[in-house]
Design brief:
alpha+beta, 9 helices, 11% strand, elongated, DUF7691 domain-containing protein
């Protein structure tokens, strides 16, 4: 079974502040402009919705209003996806061509490549395995989420630039190099915008 890592450029504090914000204007905009996207998601999860999972809009509404979160256990996954939808709708999608789809320990393989280039301030695996959605949002298994702060992105980009200046170029497989190029692009986008970082999801 394959997975997909999606990465989004966002003001992380502002994004987290949407959770429990009671921003009815945001919800109205989502209902008006993204109805087709929500309907498509409901079609994808139709079996689970029939068994008690909330619809995409109901889950988004609960997340923005800070509850109530009615579904529990395995049906709570929709709230994790609702947070992902918020990131998708309010942020900028970053090129993930090297990360979707992926299998096995690919994220750890890329991390080893980053470490070989002396980039240790960020970890690709952290975007999908060890982070989490904001506290209070119930979820179940997928999607998994993590984030890189603006400061971490700046530090990682500085490490990359230092490696280039030192002429440190260990041999890496071409597909790992391609993935690292994607990652460096993410870092450059985030470093160029104060307060912005990367929020990732694996599903």
């Amino acid at each position: 079974m394959s997975s997909c890592l999606t990465a989004h450029l966002l003001d992380i504090e502002a994004t987290r502040a949407l959770v429990g914000s009671n921003d009815e204007q945001l919800l109205a905009t989502i209902r008006a402009e993204f109805a087709r996207d929500l309907a498509r998601d409901d079609d994808w999860f139709s079996d689970q919705i029939e068994q008690g999972a909330p619809t995409a809009l109901d889950a988004l509404t609960a997340v923005v209003r800070g509850g109530p979160y009615d579904a529990v256990d395995e049906h709570a996954f929709q709230y994790g996806y609702a947070y992902k939808r918020l990131c998708t709708l309010t942020g900028s999608f970053l090129d993930n061509s090297s990360f979707c789809p992926f299998r096995g320990d690919w994220l750890e393989t890329v991390d080893e490549g980053l470490k070989a280039l002396r980039i240790t301030a960020v970890s690709v695996a952290d975007l999908g395995y060890y982070g989490g959605v904001p506290a209070g949002i119930p979820t179940y298994d997928l999607p998994r989420s993590g984030e890189w702060t603006h400061e971490e992105c700046v530090a990682a980009l500085e490490q990359f630039e230092r490696t280039k200046r030192d002429g440190h170029a260990p041999p890496l497989e071409s597909y790992v190099v391609d993935a690292i190029r994607d990652v460096v692009g993410w870092l450059e986008h985030a470093a160029a915008r104060p307060g912005y970082g990367v929020i990732g999801f694996v599903s």
